[in-house]
From TrEMBL:
Entry keyword set: Signal
Signal peptide: 1-23
Organism of provenance: Mesohalobacter halotolerans
Protein name in UniProt: Uncharacterized protein
Top-level taxon of the source organism: Bacteria
Amino acid sequence: MKHSVLKTSLLTVFLILSANVDAQRRAKKKADEDTKNWRYEIQCLNVASEGSYIVKIFSYSKKKNVAVEQSKKNAVHAVIFRGIPQNEVGCVRQPPLARHPNLQEKNRDFFNNFFSENGDYKKFVTLTTDGAIAPGDRLKVGRREYKIGLIVSVDVAGLRKELEAAGIIKSLSSGF
C-alpha cells in the first residue's frame, strides 16, 4: 500500500512537472515564431553619445519571462534592420545598420546563429529596467496574449564593429 501511494505521488509530481515544462516550451516556440516574423514595436527614448540607443521595445507574448528575452532580440533586430524612428521628445530618426533590404536573407546562417538562444546578440543589449514592467506597459491584446514594453539599451557601436568584422556590413570609412 505504501509503495502504491508513493508511486502514485511520484507519478503525479512527474506529470505536473512535465506539463509545466511542456507549457514553457510551447510559449518559447510561439515567441520564437513571433521573433522570426519580427513582430514588435519600438520607440526611441534616447540616443546616447557613447554609441548606444535607449529604446522601449514592445514584444508580444503570453509570459513575461519569454517577452523579456524576445525584447532583447527585437531591439537588436530593430537597430540592424529597421532603424529607430524619431519621436516628439527629441529623438532623431536613426537609420538601420543594414543598408540592403535582403541582407538578412543573404546572410541567413549568420543571423540564425546570431539570434539563437545563446547567440551573440546578447553582448550588445541590456535591460535598463531589469525586466520590471511598468503598469502601463503590459497590455492585453488577445484572449491570452500581452503586449509587453521594456526599456532596453543597445550598444550600437559594438554591434556595428561586430557586423563589420564578420563582413556583414561595410564600415563607414569604406564608402558606399
